[in-house]
Amino acid sequence: MATTGVVDGHDLRWFIAGTAITEATTGSIEFSAETRKSTSKDSTGGWSVVKIGEKSFTGSCEGLFTEAGSFESLWTAFAAGTSLVMEFTTGVTGDKFDNCVCFITGLSRGADDNQDVTYSATFEGSGVPSRDTEA
User: Fold this and answer.
1) Where are the beta strands (DSSP E) in 18-83?
2) Which of 55, 67, 89, 118 is the most buried (most CB within 10 A)?
3) Could you tell me the end-to-end alpha-carbon distance of the chain, in angstroms, rounded to an integer?
């Protein structure tokens, strides 16, 4: 049954080919569109006229690093330059989710003194993402 009310951030996460990215603490997706000027000598009052140009999307996640976790899969895809089929979803039947193809564009680990080791990954989308419904 689809989630009702405000979605809890704990439930929304990145998946790679149906498998959750492990130990994640954050996740995000951002859609953007460039604008292009379409101003001519016939434009009124010196005001700029714009149209939507190229659209794109990016994503990111951070998490706690474990040797048996998702970092190795992320590293393998990054090192090989291969694309990943990814979903940003709650996994709850009936909920909408973002389904996309991405490349890993950044990957890091951090080790602050007396703290858990963390990782972070950034993704850049390729092609048109879709908004699907979890079955």
Assistant:
1) 19-20, 24-37, 50-64
2) 89
3) 10
CB atoms within 10 A of CB 121: 25
Check: pTM over 0.85? Answer yes or no.
yes
- The single residue listed with the structure tokens 């009310």 is 5
**Tokens representing residue 2 in the block:** 């689809």
Three-state secondary structure call for residue 107: strand
Q: What is the CA radius of gyration of the chain?
A: 19
Helix (H) or strand (E) holding 8: none
Taking the CA atoms of residue 12, residue 17, residue 20 and residue 25 in that order, the dihedral angle to the nearest 10 degrees is: -60
> What is the Cα 132 distance to its own chain's centre?
15
